[in-house]
Design brief:
Length: about 425
């Protein structure tokens, strides 16, 4: 058998399969690492409600309040008393040592009977306290969701700014390419080409600033979500636009009156104060203690007895607590008026902000954006054909960029105002 001939070329018949697999595997690693998961607003909100530590800690106050309901309805514990009397270890003993000969055992069982529905009122008060706690939690959640929505809008706005900066940079690079060709053809002076080139750093600065702002906005949103996902793998999706439809202010007020948790909490606090007053009146009543005792008193083999102990509430009839709870009812009624005034103020303020944002956005969308784009294109065409100066072209480009940025800023203001309106009415009425 002949041995294979020696050659200086590498063997390609045995290694390509595993080399190709390794190359494919290595090539897929950066793709997997850089893959992004774009979350919608509803997904972000659901994740926030299950992961935010502040919200989860607030949820535990509801469980604590429900546990207090158990304690509120417990009956008083009975009292058991045992007694061994007439033990005579040192008395003279005629018939042997018998220290327990005259022993008198005594046992008593007593129970405090609560009158005037004290237990029922305590339970009802505890349940009403739980309702107030639930409303307080909903109000806290309302504020946190507003912060979450603001952070979400900030990410969308940063993405829009980054996309705008990228488009501006790509557009200017194309213009520079055309200008260099004109310069090579002798149709453009060196000084004009230099001035065009020196405009590019502004576009580069806008792009880098937008990139940093986007990463910062994502970091803030991830913090609210308590999410450790790398920034490169996290993204959000949603329409960065506005809706030109609003309900009337009165309709928003009606929705807020029915949905605002802080207003509901104020109303529930009035009911709770009234229950506390009823409980204070009930606690001023007298509770008897019933006792049953069993004993032995030689020569009587055994006997039993019953007794009733009734405290004489001559001085302390819980007068102070009755007066305090009565005042607390009036105080909470005043707080309801203050809460309702705050609701109307929040709705009115958010409504005015929304109307102002829409009034500014409408002409931008119907006129200014299109006009700025057409003006820039016309000045560009005139400049390339010698009908306009370089300064005119640069001014037209700057005007277009300013109009575009102003429009994007106004959309961000509208979305923030929409989130403010959602917070003002207590539920989502604007997307």
């Amino acid at each position: 058998m002949k041995s294979p001939p020696l050659t200086s070329e590498p063997c390609l018949s045995a290694e390509p399969k595993w080399l190709v697999r390794l190359a494919v595997l290595l090539a897929g690693i950066p793709v997997a690492l850089s893959a992004q998961t774009a979350l919608t607003w509803q997904q972000i909100k659901d994740k926030f409600e299950t992961a935010n530590p502040t919200l989860k800690a607030a949820q535990m106050t509801i469980d604590e309040s429900r546990a207090a309901e158990i304690s509120a309805y417990l009956r008083p514990n009975p009292t058991a008393t045992g007694l061994l009397d007439q033990i005579s270890p040192f008395a003279p003993q005629q018939n042997g040592y018998r220290p327990l000969a005259n022993l008198q055992p005594y046992a008593q069982l007593s129970y405090l009977h609560e009158r005037e529905q004290k237990r029922e009122l305590r339970l009802e008060t505890a349940k009403k306290s739980t309702e107030v706690t639930v409303s307080a939690y909903s109000d806290q959640e309302r504020g946190l969701v507003f912060n979450l929505r603001a952070a979400y809008v900030q990410v969308l706005q940063a993405k829009a700014f980054l996309q705008n900066a990228k488009e501006n940079l790509e557009y200017w690079d194309k213009e520079l390419d055309i200008s260099r060709k004109r310069f090579d053809a002798g149709d453009l002076a060196q000084v004009d080409l230099n001035r065009l080139i020196l405009v590019r750093p502004q576009f580069e600065s806008d792009f880098e600033t937008a990139t940093v702002n986007l990463r910062t906005a994502k970091i803030q949103l991830l913090q609210l979500l308590n999410d450790k996902t790398p920034i490169e793998q996290f993204d959000v999706t949603g329409a960065y636009d506005y809706t030109d439809t609003l309900m009337t202010m009165e309709e928003y007020r009606n929705v807020a009156t029915a949905a605002r948790p802080d207003l509901r909490e104020a109303l529930q606090s009035v009911d709770l104060a009234r229950l506390n007053h009823k409980l204070a009146v009930s606690n001023g009543s007298t509770d008897p203690t019933f006792s049953f005792d069993f004993a032995r008193n030689p020569p009587i083999p055994s006997y039993f007895g019953m007794s009733v102990s009734i405290p004489l509430r001559i001085f302390d009839r819980n007068q102070g607590e009755k007066a305090r709870t009565q005042i607390d009812i009036s105080r909470n009624e005043k707080l309801v008026d203050a809460a309702q005034a705050q609701v109307f103020s929040d709705v009115d303020s958010a409504y005015v902000t929304l109307v102002g944002a829409l009034n500014l956005l409408r002409p931008y969308k119907t006129q200014y954006l299109d006009l700025a784009g057409k003006t820039r294109d016309m000045i560009q065409f005139s400049y390339q054909n010698g009908g306009a100066s370089l300064l005119d072209y640069l001014d037209a480009e700057k005007s277009y960029r300013d109009v575009r940025l102003a429009y994007l800023n106004l959309i961000g203001s509208y979305l923030t105002a929409a989130a403010q309106m959602n917070m003002a009415v207590g539920r989502e009425v604007l997307q």
